[in-house]
Amino acid sequence: MAATKKAVLGPLVGAVDQGTSSTRFLVFNSKTAELLSHHQVEIKQEFPREGWVEQDPKEILQSVYECIEKTCEKLGQLNIDISNIKAIGVSNQRETTVVWDKLTGEPLYNAVDYLYYTNG
């Protein structure tokens, strides 16, 4: 069976968009800004009190890994060489806090996000 040649598009740029409700990884052609592939995963949220959202930090991290892996698989199915991804940008939850144990690397508690509500 003949080997399939990968398309040379590039350089490519990846973007991790990690938000409160989901994580996405997108890959663009840097010359045309064309979206070539993406994958999105929803993230579970807990609401322990009004105005607060908590999430499992390990689930957040795993969702990033999954989105990158699935997007790269999709690029492979399109015969696009993932070695042409030359940069990855990250957009994250700027108001969310996670405290990690510096020795074990394990989270000490859920990721906590305080939401501001205004009552008219």
In N-to-C order, the SSE pattern is EEEEHEEE
Work out the strand percent: 25-35%
End-to-end distance: 68 Å
Tell me the total number of β-strands.
7
Pfam families: FGGY_N
GO molecular function, one term: glycerol kinase activity
Keywords: Kinase, Transferase
Domain Carbohydrate kinase FGGY N-terminal: 13-112
Outline the structure in words.
- Pfam families: FGGY_N.
- Belongs to the FGGY kinase family.
- This is Glycerol kinase.
- One of its GO terms (molecular function) is glycerol kinase activity.
- The protein has one domain (12-112): ATPase, nucleotide binding domain (Nucleotidyltransferase, domain 5, 2-Layer Sandwich), CATH 3.30.420.40.
- It has 1 helix and 7 strands, in the order ββββαβββ.
- The strands form 2 sheets. The protein has a 4-stranded mixed β-sheet.
- The radius of gyration is 18 Å and the shape is elongated.
- 18% of the residues lie in helices and 33% in strands.
- The model has no long low-confidence stretch (mean pLDDT 89).
- It is an alpha+beta fold and 120 residues long.
Brief characterization of the structure:
This protein is an alpha+beta fold and 120 residues long.
Keywords:
alpha+beta; transferase; three-stranded antiparallel β-sheet; 120 residues; four-stranded mixed β-sheet; Nucleotidyltransferase, domain 5
